[in-house]
Structures are given as structure tokens and as C-alpha cells.
Amino acid sequence: MIKKIFFFFFALSIISCSTNDDVLEEQNNVQQEDLQPEKILPPYVYPTTSFTIGGYFKCVYNNGKLTRMYGRYLKSEQLGVPDRFDLDSFMTFTYNNNQVKLEFISDSGVDLGMVIIYTMENDRLIKSELYYRDFVEPDMLVKTRTYTYEANKIAVYEDENNKMRESFITYTFDSNKNLIKSEKLDKSYGIDSKLTVTNYSNFDHAKNPFKKLSLVYDQNNIHDNTFYVKSLSANNYRKIEGTTQLLNSQHPYPQGTFMSQWNYNYDSQGQVVLYHPLQ
Question: Of 85, 137, 170, 188, which one has the fewest beta carbons inside 10 Å?
């Protein structure tokens, strides 16, 4: 199976991302047609988050483009310590021709020292570069992602710290332009380390309110593409389930499983409600 994934990405690497316009026509719609959510409660992004965490993401737009997003979800890594939400931290988006610069600012107004440069082509993401700042030396490139498009698939290659860690990801879509499956192969120093397969299901018929949030980056976990993945479909998946397997050339570990579900509310027009007063 691992060899199949490798050869699939090798074949994709020679396909120009601009020669096949059949992938996700939904992404090429006029931006003004997409929804512009202004407030988002964290559980509608992270399904295991409680509504009692407090706070919400706040989005600001200019001429149909996201220019600022307030809010940072901080997942606790310690048993007994609850997750928390920082409403005052924010990220800014600056648009210049075919590039978008994403910068992160703390609640005290301090630059958090991380910058992402997105490169777009025909309104589709083709490259992202994550830099760390030390404010003295030139910015240090930490991670690069390249995106390749073909019919009903997107392939992403991720290079972290000059191939110390690599990831090969495929996103597969159905005829309704909804994401139905993703496969991610992680490598460490050139050796297969983990395989994650995720299935997406239980789609509604509402428009996807995350379309304009595809460039939002999760500050809590630099390996998490939550907003990007949620933005890919025409409609909204309400269930994910999958498997993870740690790989070792001699002793493969048994598979682990995961599952999450979303319970959305809908307005009178049948569209997803991402913010509402809490009772």
C-alpha cells in the first residue's frame, strides 16, 4: 500500500497544476458568492471542544477577502487542565498580486514570530511557505507545502526542515465536489513513520461557510490543517472516521481508530449557523 501511495505522488509530481481545470470548480466561483461568517464558536471547528470553553473566532473581511481573524484555541496537553480560548490574539492577511502573507499577533500586540506566504494561481492555492522570525537574522524557512490538482483529487507534498520530515497527502472528492477521503503518509528522515486514512461522510445540503477561511492556520498545532480541510467541500461533512498506523520497517504497530461528529444548527434558509447565544 505504501508503494502505491509513493508511485501515485510520483506521477502527480509531473502534472502541471494549471493544466487541469476540472478539479473542484467550486473553488473557482466568484468570491462574493461564498458565505462570510463573522463569528464562529470553537465546537463547530473542533468537535471535541465544549461550548463552555467560552469565546469565539471573529472574522473581518474587505472586498470579499478575509483580512483579519481574532481568536486562538489552546488545547491543553496536561491531564486535568482544561482547554482555553484566547479571543484577543489574531492573524492578519495581506494580499499582494498572487501572494497572501499571514502574520500572527498575540493578545498584547506582540508579533509571534511566525509568517506564512501563500502563492495562488487562478484562485487556487499552489504553495505555502512557513517562516520563523528571529528579528535579527533573515527569516528561517521551516515548512513548504506544494499543491497539485487533477480531476477529483488534490495532492499535497509537505517538506519540513529540509526533508527531516515529509508528508504526502491526497484528498479525494465525489461527483458532488465533496471531500470523501484523505490519505496522509508521514516520513521521518526518509523512512515511513505514520499512515493516516480519514473518511468524511454525512454531508448536509447547505453551502460551506468555511470557503473563505481556507488560508486560516491553526496556531495551536502547526501540523493541523483544520480550516483548510473544512473549506474544501461544496457542502458540510458532519462525521469523520479513520485509522492511524505507526510504521516501522521491522515491527509495524497495530492500527488506531478515531471518530468525530458535528451537530450543526441551520437557519430558515437552510444554511449552517456557526454562532449563536449560549444558554
Answer: 137
Distance CA 112, CA 124 (A): 27
Residue 267 has pLDDT above 90, yes or no: yes
Provide the strand spans (E) within the chain.
39-40, 57-62, 65-74, 84-96, 99-105, 111-121, 124-132, 140-150, 153-160, 165-173, 179-188, 191-201, 239-246, 256-261, 265-266, 272-273
User: Hunting for cell 479571543 — which residue is that?
Assistant: 87
C-alpha 277: how far from its chain's center? Answer: 27
The structure's pTM equals: 0.83
Residue 136 is placed in which grid cell?
535579527
Selection from 29-43, 47-61, 248-262 with the highest mean pLDDT = 47-61
* Spatial distance between the Cα atoms of 263 and 134, rounded to a whole number of angstroms: 42
- Sequence length of the chain is 279
